[in-house]
Design goal:
This protein is an alpha+beta fold. It has one domain (2-64): Alpha-Beta Plaits, CATH 3.30.70.20. Helix content is 23%, strand content 22%. The chain has helices at residues 15-19, 46-55; strands spanning 2-5, 24-26, 32-34, 61-64. The radius of gyration is 10 Å and the shape is globular. The relative contact order is 0.36. A two-stranded antiparallel ribbon has the order 1-4. Strands 2-3 form a two-stranded antiparallel sheet.
Length: 65
């Protein structure tokens, strides 16, 4: 599966980082960084990526099978 990140939509709430800090990270400027940008999420990390996408209050993360 992949995660499509709408970077322009992200408001820097950091809820994704709280759920999966090794996948999603906010820098000091509040900009989101995604560890697997343009790549498949490893199978062992899919549940964490889905959980992080589910808590985003502005729906900036979309799961794509």
């Amino acid at each position: 599966m992949k995660v499509i990140v709408a970077y322009a939509r992200c408001e820097g709430h950091g809820m994704c980082e709280e759920r999966a800090g090794d996948i999603f990270r906010l820098d000091d400027a509040g900009d989101l960084h995604y560890a697997y940008d343009g790549e498949e999420v490893p199978a062992a990390r899919e549940a964490d990526a889905k959980a992080a996408a589910g808590v985003c209050p502005v729906a900036a993360l979309k799961i794509v099978p």
